């Protein structure tokens, strides 16, 4: 369905200001605070669990390794957060990472200077995000279908760029990015970059008109258009930003492993989505926070690391990701799910006996009928014993 003409439906400036404020649910901050409090408790519980199962959990070297492994997922979760809050999703993030890694390796093997390589890789990420955004906003295609398609498309492009080749002769100063911490700290480079980006994304989402517009789009696209929000432009910019950030993650991933191959980062999109949803971002849009996502990164990384220290079967770690995804989707929507179940039961006619032992009712609430069409009444018109609940004989 095509979007309505924005100029034709744009209200006056005071009306737009009031409408934009009303589009964000009034209880949003309170719900977010409750979810984030629960995440903080979960992080503490995981730390206690990790400390119990292994004395190595709280060591500086373990925290460094934990940050190194989780860094790229955390970085890609930031633009994904804004996209999901706006009511869309991007499942091509890991493929953009792999495509960027493949291009980096290819250009380096052909003796390009590293600064020029960085510029081209960033442009590639922006182009990939722009393609996603235009398909969603200009053609009106669902972002889920579009990004599933580009997930395979970009991974195929990575295979074409690099083939089965492996490039690993990068300069030593770049390869140390994933091995050595930021000078005078124990913080990995990718976590330091994530911290800076988290502050920037947090300010944009929670302290600017753009952030309020993103929430408004997730709450309702047509209402956002009526409020004068340029929905297509903002969503396109979100996808472009995601592409650029994922390209950056691809560079960090390549230097951390000191290897460029066409399948770098394969399957990582599931972890990114799991972190975003665990952070309290609603899959339906309109709700979520950067603080929640940061806490979710800590919880996800700490749990994965604690299980690793317990010699948990690493081939079964997908179970943990799947369980976290289900919990993060079900818990925030538990009330609406329960309401749907009650409606379904009512539509099915409900149980034979009412709670409290009342007589069984047929369709439309009439007394249940025996074979032959008589109502379930005993002799003299009294209810038959079978139609009386226990305790009311």
CATH topology: ABC transporter involved in vitamin B12 uptake, BtuC
Q: Got a strand count?
A: 0
Main beta-sheet strand count, sense and barrel state: none
Q: In the CATH classification, which architecture applies?
A: Orthogonal Bundle
Note the beta-strand portion. under 5%
Structural class: mainly alpha
Element-level helix/strand string? HHHHHHHHHHHHHHHH
User: What's the CATH class label?
Assistant: Mainly Alpha
Q: How many domains comprise the coordinates?
A: 1
Description:
- With about 400 residues, this protein is mostly helical.
- It has one domain (about 5-340): ABC transporter involved in vitamin B12 uptake, BtuC (Orthogonal Bundle), CATH 1.10.3470.
- The chain contains 16 helices and no strands.
- The longest helix has 27 residues, at about 230-255.
- It is globular, with a radius of gyration of 27 Å.
